[in-house]
Every structure is written in C-alpha cells, then in structure tokens.
C-alpha cells in the first residue's frame, strides 16, 4: 500500500484495509510520498491494521523492479533512511512498526544475493531486532535470519506465479487475477502448505502470511474473496504478533 504519488493514484488502499491484518506501506523510494505515507498510516490505525515498512530501491520510474548496482553501504543507509521516515510518522499516531518487507527486485537482492544478504540483516538487527523480517520461505536471507535468532515471517505470494523451484515470478506491471482463483490458492496454502506452479504442478510452501499486491487492478476484490474464503474454512486471520503469541 501507499504507492500513490502526488496527483497520481495507484490502488485503493482504504478499500483494502477492512480485509487485511498487516499492511506493507511504501516508504517513499520506489513509490509513495510523505502525504501518502501519513494517510495510509492513518487508515491503518483506523482499521486496526499492523504496519510494516515496504522498503525499496530509489527507482520511481521503474517502480523498484529494475536491478541497481548499489554498494552494501548504500543499501544500509537507504534502509535506515526509509525505516526512520516511517517511524517518524508512526510516532505521530502512537503506532509501532511491526515488520519490514523489501519491495520488487530489492526483495530478490537482499533475499538471495550474497553481496547484500548480511548487510540487510545487520541493518535490521542494529536498527530494531524486534521487527519481523518478511521474505518468501526458503530464501537464504530468511534462513540466516532464523539462525541469528531474528524474528521471521515467511510469506507466500498468492497472486503471483511460482516456478517449480519455489521462486515467484516478477511482473513489471501487476495484472488482474480471478479473486476466486487466488482465494482457493490461499486456502490451499493455509490448509495444505502447497501452491500450484506455472508448469501446472503443486509444490510445498511454508508461510504464516499471504501477500496480496495493492497495485493489482482488482486488489480489493481479491482481498475480500480471500478473507471470505478463510472465514468459510474457519481459518483464523491475525496479525504477526497475534500469530506468534
């Protein structure tokens, strides 16, 4: 959420809030601006949704989905800058940051590329070791985070394709998916710990949270369908603190 900028609107964040328990809010690098950041946090408080920092690359034109050759030190300071900006607004509303989730290609960079993994983990640990680190299950950064004793929140991206190796497939422009199809994938993830691949097979996945992208054209309908499917299947939905309590 929080990916609009100035007069350009992307997604309908307020309409998503009633259906989610945690929100990944852009911190102004890949998308968003200070007004949008504050408004999205205000909605999160109104709907009692936990807030996470959706940190990204400084690439608004590419929406944070293009690889950049940052130095580890640049990565460290960019992360601190974004976390600090979000914390400043959260302080105004008496809220705390629950988690941190990289956006776009940064997700892959800090999750899988040796040049960045430890810098990412070092930065989060030194800034706030109480933050949940949200990445897809099985990535190297999540394994190292667990070994360090950091809080982790493995996720499954239910509105993206997966290959047979368990890697999600990036979309440069988010496309609409059938709400019923995504909802069924979410139920299968929650109850069977499996997801279908683009090759038509099913692979095992492990996660405590499922992701819905707010920039999809029908994100609200997808979120509503997932939440209603969980209720029908009596799958309890809570934020991360509630899940790990």
TrEMBL record:
Name of this protein: LamB/YcsF family protein
Pfam families: LamB_YcsF (PF03746)
InterPro entries: Glyco_hydro/deAcase_b/a-brl, LamB/YcsF/PxpA-like
NCBIfam families: PRK05406.1-3
Residue stretches spanning the membrane: none
């Amino acid at each position: 959420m929080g990916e609009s900028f100035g007069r350009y609107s992307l997604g309908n964040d307020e309409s998503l809030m009633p259906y989610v328990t945690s929100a990944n809010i852009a911190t102004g690098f890949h998308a968003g601006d200070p007004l949008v950041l504050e408004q999205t946090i205000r909605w999160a408080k109104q709907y009692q949704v936990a807030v996470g920092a959706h940190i990204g690359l400084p690439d608004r034109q590419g929406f944070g989905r293009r690889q950049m050759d940052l130095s580890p030190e640049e990565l460290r300071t960019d992360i601190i800058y974004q976390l600090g900006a979000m914390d400043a607004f959260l302080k105004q509303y008496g809220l705390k940051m629950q988690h941190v989730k990289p956006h776009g290609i940064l997700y892959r960079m800090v999750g899988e590329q040796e040049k960045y993994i430890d810098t990412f983990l070092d930065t989060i640990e030194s800034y706030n070791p109480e933050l949940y680190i949200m990445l897809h299950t099985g990535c190297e950064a999540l394994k190292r985070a667990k070994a360090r004793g950091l809080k982790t929140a493995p996720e499954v991206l239910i509105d993206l394709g997966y290959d047979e190796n368990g890697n999600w497939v990036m979309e440069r422009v988010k496309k609409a998916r059938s709400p019923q199809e995504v909802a069924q994938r979410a139920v299968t993830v929650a109850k069977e710990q499996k997801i279908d691949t683009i090759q038509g097979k099913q692979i095992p996945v492990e996660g405590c949270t499922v992701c819905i992208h707010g920039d999809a054209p029908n994100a609200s309908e997808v979120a509503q369908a997932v939440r209603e499917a969980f209720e029908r299947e009596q799958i309890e939905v809570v934020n991360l603190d509630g899940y790990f309590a």
